[in-house]
Design a protein that fits this description.
With 59 residues, chain A is mainly alpha-helical. In chain A, 88% of the residues lie in helices and 0% in strands. Chain A is built from 2 helices and no strands. The relative contact order of chain A is 0.12. The longest helix of chain B has 35 residues. With 223 residues, chain B is mostly helical. Chain B is elongated, with a radius of gyration of 35 Å. The chains are: A mainly alpha (59), B mainly alpha (223).
């Protein structure tokens, strides 16, 4: 379970950083934009997964 | 041109042309970026961006390959992941090497002989079953790295327009600040000249006090 979570967070971190790097280059906005996208990815995918789990448990 | 005109002028940007002007060929940058993650940016004149993305994407790919002990990239036998391979192809050369390794074409890089991998006993062995979660994680990492590298290669081919736009915008902002400073510097002596009254002119009337502003003057008290 922990290794799955680590893999998920790691994948999201690298993917969001590379995507932000393409858009922002190395400037003062990079870390903030990366954190925003990372949060959005982890939160969005996590919420979707939780939703799927909930629906699966209820049905 | 005034500051407001500079603000309204459209952002004209052709990063690919700028790359050609620097003597770099966008197609070569794209091909290099596909072959080795980050190399296209290094070639295109963005070494920092290229090296950081190389470390991240190649690191992720190699981590996935290491976790699965090379089984994440395969196209033959029961180990084949053809759909995953489509995503892994995005990583170019590392995937080519990993594929050759899976076919036993790279001597010294294979921990399980090819004939053992093809056998049924290998897939039912506890050793293989215990490794399945790691293989899944390896698949995930290599696929994501391959897809990310496609993005990077395309960005290198386009001449990294995001980075160029950011630099252009910063240069424009600096230019605007410089122009505003110049305008302010020109404005200050003119204002000083208009405020100082000419000699012999009557003195300006005293401004009404704030307390009495807008009110009629109070009548003088009777003696």
């Amino acid at each position: 379970m922990i290794s799955t979570l680590l893999a998920f967070v790691g994948s999201c971190a690298v993917a969001s950083f590379v995507c932000t790097l393409i858009k922002e280059d190395f400037d003062k906005h990079l870390l903030l934009a990366w954190a925003r996208l990372f949060g959005l990815m982890v939160g969005g995918i996590g919420a979707f997964a939780l939703g799927v789990q909930l629906v699966t448990a209820l049905v | 041109m005034s500051g407001s005109e500079a603000k309204d002028e459209p952002l004209v940007l052709d990063a690919q042309q700028a790359m050609r002007d620097r003597g770099r060929i966008p197609e070569v940058a794209g091909a290099l970026g596909w072959l080795v993650p980050g190399l296209g940016h290094v070639y295109g004149g963005f070494p920092k961006k290229g090296l950081v993305s190389m470390v991240l994407v190649l690191g992720m790919y190699l981590l996935g390959l290491g976790l699965s002990r090379g089984d994440a990239v395969a196209l033959h036998g029961d180990l084949a992941h053809p759909i995953a391979f489509v995503a892994q192809v995005g990583a170019g050369l590392p995937t080519g090497l990993a594929y050759l390794r899976s076919r036993g074409k790279l001597p010294g890089f294979r921990d399980v002989p090819a004939e053992d991998v093809e056998s049924e006993e290998y897939f039912q062995s506890e050793e293989f079953i215990s490794r399945l979660p790691a293989v899944q994680t390896g698949l995930l990492f290599t696929m994501i790295a391959g897809l990310l590298n496609l993005l990077l290669a395309y960005d290198a081919f386009r001449g990294s327009p995001g980075a160029v736009a950011r630099h252009l915008e910063e240069a424009r902002l600096e230019l605007r600040v410089q122009r505003l400073r110049e305008e302010l510097a020109n404005l200050a002596p003119a204002e000083a000249a208009s405020e100082s009254p000419p000699e012999g002119a009557p003195a300006e009337e005293a401004a009404p006090s704030p307390a009495g502003a807008g009110e009629p003057p109070a009548p003088e008290e009777a003696p």
